[in-house]
Write a structure and sequence with these properties.
Elements (H helix, E strand, L loop, with lengths): L10 H13 L5 H12 L10 H14 L3 H14 L5 H13 L3 H14 L4 H13 L3 H14 L4 H13 L3 H14 L4 H14 L2 H17 L4 H15 L6 H28 L11 H10 L9
Helix pairs in contact: 2-3, 3-4, 3-5, 4-5, 5-6, 6-7, 7-8, 8-9, 9-10, 10-11, 11-12, 11-13, 12-13, 13-14, 14-15
């Protein structure tokens, strides 16, 4: 039987539901707080071996929902029963300080954690998050680079570093991060699309050719990726107007423009047909879409 927080009526059912969320790495913070207030706060002695895992789970949920009252009650109970130097308790204290925007205290606690466990990936990631929250992208980038020297397979960290480089307009290094992501997961169309977006932003004939190639691969991996299709259309259109465009390349680029326009039009046609019964008065004529695609002339940023 599938349970959710609304039909849980006893402590045992609540324990099962909370355990499932922990195993699936799902937060469900609002539901966790509801279960705590309605069933568990006055029944912690009935939680058995899972008591402290549940109390820790409630701590995280309380931070997610800004329930400082519940957080402090749970933290007090944890600190009364465990060594105050426990790395897990220190991590929760750092998260509490971060929630209250007391970033210096949070960083001090995280540094203390890393003194005892230099390889603690969660603490190092939290430091990056704090630097980002402070708007200090340079320190966040430096911290992430140090982290990735030891945890090179962390895709989330590479993506975060890529986004930070984009914010700093360091597109060459952002491209490198995307290449690492593609090497780790060569079947993820979003990584190809992101790399293509970066190259399109850089502009210039060589970058635009790379953008066209990677938009094409993203569309190949996922034919429903409309951003990749539009990107392919735009990149090929820009290449057609370049003075570096040879006669042979012009034919190839024109084929890409025609193919992308056809794919976009057909997908809009299918979408409009599927909605025809409920929104016939609001339909956009397909012929109008073809005209708009034919007139589309969006220019990328001029390279400096």
């Amino acid at each position: 039987m599938i349970m959710d927080a609304r039909n849980v009526t006893c402590v045992e059912e609540a324990k099962v539901l909370l355990r499932n969320w922990r195993e699936e790495n799902v937060r469900q913070s609002d539901d966790v707080i509801d279960l705590w207030e309605e069933l568990l706060a006055d029944a912690t002695d009935d939680l058995g071996d899972e008591k402290w895992m549940i109390v820790e789970q409630v701590c995280v949920a309380a931070m997610d929902t800004n329930r400082i009252d519940i957080l402090d009650i749970c933290l007090k109970e944890l600190r009364a029963n465990f060594d105050r130097g426990s790395l897990r308790i220190l991590r929760l204290l750092a998260m509490r300080a971060e929630m209250l925007e007391d970033y210096e205290t949070a960083l001090g606690i995280l540094d203390k954690i890393l003194e005892e466990d230099e390889a603690n990936s969660q603490a190092r990631k939290r430091k990056v998050s704090i630097h980002v929250a402070q708007g200090d992208n340079v320190r966040a980038i430096s911290e992430l680079n140090r982290y990735l020297k030891e945890f090179m397979n962390d895709g989330e960290a590479w993506m975060e570093l890529c986004d930070l480089y984009i914010l700093e307009q360091d597109y060459a290094k952002a491209s490198f991060c995307c290449e690492e992501l593609i090497l780790q997961n060569p079947h993820n169309h979003l990584y190809y699309q992101k790399f293509a977006d970066i190259k399109y932003t850089q502009s210039g004939f060589e970058h635009m050719e790379l953008a066209k190639t990677y938009y094409s691969q993203a569309a190949k991996l996922n034919p429903d990726n409309m951003r990749a299709l539009y990107g392919l259309l735009l990149a090929a259109t820009q290449l057609l107007s370049s003075p570096k465009c040879t006669a042979q390349k012009k034919k190839d680029y024109q084929k890409s423009v025609n193919w992308a326009a056809k794919q976009i039009s057909s997908k809009y046609e299918a979408k409009l047909e599927s909605k025809s019964s409920s929104a016939s008065d609001n339909q956009v004529p397909v012929g109008l879409l073809d005209g708009l695609l034919g007139q589309l002339q969006i220019q990328p940023p001029t390279s400096s």
